[in-house]
Amino acid sequence: MTLEETKKGRVGVVGLGAMGFGMAASLVRAGFEVAGFDLSAEAVERLVAAGGRAAATPAAAAEGADALFSVVVNAAQTEDVLFGAEGAAAALPEGAVFVSCATMAPEAARALAARVAAMRRHYLDAPISGGAKKAAEGALTVLASGTPAAMTRARPALAAVAATVHELGDEAGTAAAFKMVNQLLAGVHIAAACEAITFAARLGLDIRKVYEVITGAAGNSWMFENRVPHILEGDYTPLSAVNIFTKDLGIVMDMSRASNFPVPVAATALQLFTMTSAAGMGRDDDSSVARFYAQTAGVTLPAKKS
Hints:
The protein is α/β, with parallel strands linked by helices and 306 residues long. The chain has helices at residues 3-6, 18-29, 41-49, 58-62, 75-83, 106-118, 131-137, 148-161, 174-202, 207-214, 222-233, 242-258, 264-281, 289-297; strands spanning 10-14, 33-37, 53-54, 67-70, 97-100, 122-125, 128-129, 140-144, 162-167.
């Protein structure tokens, strides 16, 4: 059997950042023929080195694909991937599925799905969770909603990138709403973790010991366990940037106003991310909220080792 005969099908990936690259590499390992596009030539070269194929545009990534993953930041970028100059919608074969992984408001997902459906392509609302490490392992959690046909077309490729796929209904937008609940909690937990570890530093405690104690105690959270090591190492390389949460918690605020539901804890977390961004750290890792606290209170946190 030749290599081509062992291929499971063609998949495109638009957006080869920390998450998208890991997903694309996982698809290659699973036996898919993968074409990838990114504005960064270096990111595309990494995919080629991992066994994928370079695509010069989103349309080129979509050509001949059974599924096209869009791993970009927001609804506006997703719309551009689909319908912008050299967009993917028209190039994607009829009956293929567009898998939208961006975090966005539910109404934005529904609007995009309707436009794609009008072109006789399928749209799967499929935001992702798990971080860059899980993406690289092909072990993400995917929150998915869309028509049965969209889900059927996407399942083989989803199996390559995810350990868990939650099928949440037949309508695009449902998964987006689930993701916003997750992002509310994630943002609040990151802000709380940063506040707690900087408070510990202000108290003169050994914050490495604090991390050891809290990760085995009732106060622990996934975000405390995941983000505090960045602070301990003084490494704010953006695995997930501060500005991601100014965006996502901003969407939560919009949704709360629309539904007349108060979210004061999320609102406070949003202000912390906004202040951190305003202090010049918007593109740094979201654990930089601890640096904002430290700057405000005159607390010294560990510096990055050279």
